[in-house]
Automatic annotation (TrEMBL):
This is Transposase domain. The lineage of its organism: Bacteria, Pseudomonadati, Pseudomonadota, Gammaproteobacteria, Pseudomonadales. Residues 17-106 form the Transposase InsH N-terminal domain.
Length: 106
């Protein structure tokens, strides 16, 4: 089991659900994830040679959050470092966050 970071532990103890959190919960339910992943997967790099690729589902979620919230590539990278909710929605931990070039290339 992965150890919680201080940020994750603090976030787990909060009480109020924000509009952004409600929005992401709703999007998690209504977006046809498996259909989109199946459509993109034949074109997504396998990560052979070089750094391992991020999971397709993670990159798709980050890309959609960028569009929903109007983040540029550098701003999305920063938001993933700063905001626990966004990292959780994308399925990321603080140990490995996609940089702005990775986001641009996706």
């Amino acid at each position: 089991m992965k150890q919680l970071s201080f940020a994750d532990a603090e976030y787990a103890g909060k009480r109020k659900q924000t509009r952004r959190e409600r929005f992401l919960l709703e999007m998690d339910q209504v977006v046809p994830w498996s259909g989109l992943i199946a459509l993109i997967e034949p074109h997504y790099p396998k990560g052979e040679g070089g750094r391992p690729a991020y999971p397709l589902a993670t990159m798709l979620r980050v890309h959609l959050m960028q569009n929903w919230f109007g983040y540029s590539d550098p701003a999305m990278e920063e938001a993933l470092y700063e905001t626990t909710l966004l990292r959780q929605f994308a399925g990321l931990g603080l140990e490995r966050i996609p940089d702005e070039t990775t986001l641009l290339n996706f």
